Amino acid sequence: MAQKPGIPKGTRDFSPIEMAKRNYIFDTIREVYALYGFQQIETPAMENLSTLMGKYGEEGDKLLFKILNSGDFLHGMTPDEVATSNCLKLASCFCEKGLRYDLTVPFARYVVQHREELTLPFKRYQIQPVWRADRPQKGRYREFYQCDADVVGSDSLLNEVELMQIIDTVFTRFGVRVCIKINNRKILSGIAEIIGQADKIVDITVAIDKIDKIGLDNVNAELREAGLPDDAIDKLQPIILLSGTNDEKLATMKEVLRDSEVGLKGVAESEFILSKLKDLNNAIELDLTLARGLNYYTGAIFEVKALDVQIGSITGGGRYDNLTGIFGMPGLSGVGISFGADRIFDVLNQLDLYPKSAVNSTQLLFVNFGECEADYCLKALAAVRRAGIRAEIYPDAAKMKKQMSYANAKQIPFVALVGETEMAAQKITLKNMETGEQQLVTVDELIAQLG
Fold first, then answer.
1. What is the pLDDT of residue 81?
2. Are 293 and 370 within one domain?
3. pLDDT tens digits, residue range 82-98?
């Protein structure tokens, strides 16, 4: 017996019902992005490794899926070079391309490559899959979709404000209660400065960003391993554990960072953003432990957690001032967010928040009683489809029980029955599959009821 085929770990198949749910997510996000003036682009699934490497930090580089050069990828290499156990060196020899790790770096490449065609500020959104060679676990996949929106070519903090409003609008439409957490990398730089560890900013942010996952004691242990002295770690504790309202936290940080120019700038930026977001449906919280691991963030950073489901971040983003500079265009500021569609899919599944209209594909099934009846149904089908009603006819004149089972399996809410009596009266018997109620209607009446 042949072995049953499978798929790589960290990837998933999606059934028709699951695809209907996913399209509901994508369509909702797409509609909200368009409301705020964002335009859609797409970039290739693979990029040159020179575009991707060095943009995500050392850990990110390790998680890049690299693609072997086509043809004889070992061409020009000596046996000694092939025999080396240095994987990174080998990859650099026979891999020139890689699958995209996120949508932000390809977007930065796109902006630089198409600069002459763009009107700044440029507001784009992008909904495409990305790939990471990560260890698969609950809520973490090797292939997953991101739904990004970015604005480049503007330093205004109103962009941050609007992105937070987009997050609030999307999750309000989904019916998911969330907490929007914000922080600022300038505040984190200021904290590193006042504890005398400015050169350890990356180590500090990488460690404290894990506090929700590994706890405070393990964060402190990681800081010690990174070379921070105990007195610096002690100074960090009251800042990491700071509680109170957003206004109280801001007031405390103004005092703590009074000798740090960059830190105070981060406080001022956070204060401006929070002051404009008093009327959100969802909670927004200044969280000083939020660091976002990606190295390219330079200002405000954001993360969203679902309140009623135990899962990781479902949206994130931030301000990046230097990303396009890597590609030869310095001084172009940007800010963006990314919805994690796969985690949102899991959240909506757990909370059962999909509207019926989003998951029921076919609204109406015409039962097939034979050739003459099918001809009558085809004319009616054309009319209801022109009216925008999703309808189909069972292709075979099978037993009634089989056709009804098909309707039930596909959760089709209405069935149209056409026999000699209906054809003589130029009508259709419409059956509600949920209540069992039947009524004799014309095609126009059917359209009025289901349209």
1. 63
2. no
3. 666 556 566 666 788 99
Q: How far is residue 353 CA from its own chain's centroid?
A: 18
Q: 292, 323, 351 — which closes off a domain?
A: 351
**Sign of the CA dihedral running 194, 199, 202, 206:** negative
Rounded to the nearest 10 degrees, what angle do helices 201-208 and 185-194 cross at? 120
Instruction: Tell which residue, 315, 318, 301, has the closest CA to residue 343.
Output: 315
The kind and range of the H/E element at 438 are strand 438-441
User: Which distant-in-sequence residues (6+ apart) come within 8 Å of 353 by Cβ?
Assistant: 174, 175, 176
- Rounded CA-CA distance 236/220 in Å is 9
Which residues does 265 contact at the CB level (< 8 Å), separation at least 6?
186
Closest CA to 127 of 192, 31, 215, 217: 31
Q: What is the 3-state secondary structure (H, E, C) of 90-157?
A: HHHHHEEEEECCCCHHHHHHHHHHCHHHCCCCEEEEEEEEEECCCCCECCECCEEEEEEEEEECCCCC
**Alpha-carbon distance values, 226 to 187, 198, 214, 237 (Å):** 20, 13, 16, 16
**pLDDT for position 76:** 63
In angstroms and rounded to an integer, the radius of gyration of the C-alpha atoms of the chain is 28
DSSP state of 282: S
What is the total count of domains within the chain?
2
Q: Which of the residues in the chain have pLDDT under 50?
A: none
Return all residues near 117 (Cβ < 8 A) that are at least 6 apart.
none
Of the candidates 192, 196, 194, the residue with the CA atom closest to the CA atom of residue 207? 192
Of residues 146, 103, 180, 171, the one with CA closest to residue 342: 146
Residues 353, 359: Cα–Cα separation, whole Å:
11
Residue 16: closest CA among 360, 422, 392: 360
* Domain boundary pick from 351, 381, 401: 351
Q: Is the pTM of this model over 0.70?
A: yes
Task: Find the domain containing 401 and state its range.
Answer: 360-450
Preceding amide of 106 cis, omega within 30: no
Angle at 223 (CA atoms; ends 222, 229), nearest 5 degrees: 140
The answer on 295 and 161 residing in a single domain is yes
Tokens of 60: 């990110």
Residue type, 74: L
CA distance 305 to 208: 17
Task: Specify the pLDDT at position 55.
Answer: 80
- pLDDT of 72 reads 64
DSSP string for residues in 339-404? EEHHHHHHHHHHHT---HHHH----EEE----HHHHHHHHHHHHHHHHTT--EEE-SS---HHHHH
